[in-house]
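Write out this protein's structure.
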Amino acid sequence: MLKTAICDLLGIRHPIIQGGMAHVATVELVSAVSNAGGLGIIGAGYYQPDWVRQQIRLTRQQTSQPFGVNIQLTSIFTEQVVEVVLQEKVAVVTTGAGNPETYISRFKQNGIKVVPVVASVDSAKRLEQTGADAIVAEGMESGGHVGETTTMALVPQVVDSVRIPVVAAGGIADGRGLVAALALGAQGVQIGTRFVCSRECIAHPRYKQKILEADDGSTVVTRQTVGYPLRTLRNSLTEQVKALEEAGISREELELFDRGRMYLGLIEGDIEEGSLLAGQIAGLIKEIKPVRVIIEEIMAEAETIITSLKNFHRED
């Protein structure tokens, strides 16, 4: 069995973390990933603390394995969600869309592992010094809010800059991606879009179908002019946003325009007016499968590739 330092750190069988995706990373998906040997992550998003507490307790009813919570640091409920996570003694916290430094010591004092998601080397180095247990280095291929550096370029630079384990994210959906991440020095991978197209994920079937129909050019990054670039599937909404940006819309105006769009697309299935988060790897995903099968196939493919690499012959 392929095990790495991240498996030992987080108490999981396979070096696979599920992305803490807003709206769709709920008990159904989280418990399935953890039961299959990965680390399921509840996506707290902008939900109220009572919802997060309920999700934690429901997940505990569905799995005895470790799982975590992703805290969206731009949420108005961040402080309350942090308190819920501390009270419920969740095993792992991942963070996104902000700087978690002010919370890290509190988590660690309560025995909670802290694994921030970063898009730059500087952030990784700073968070290691603050006490992070591991780092998720997420390249711009990922779905949702993105940075400026690709996974292939970001991961080895982060690996070389810190001593704690690094998890690669962005553009990873199969065993080939896992092996590539390990070759870059990562100790595991975080996967999002592939798990959306799992049987257990509550994402709307029309949203899942759009991912299955995607190709390598189906995603686009918008909202760059207002400072929070977002990768989604192309649709009517992305064209509207592009026009608004060209007209000089402010960040505040665009945030108001965007309100509720993610839920509209991911949960209600409006594939034209909703925001359809997806990574560039969407073009590789062609079938909805149970989480257990997805993870088993990733691990089996990775093992096969590693074995084949060992069998290469070098000529002197």
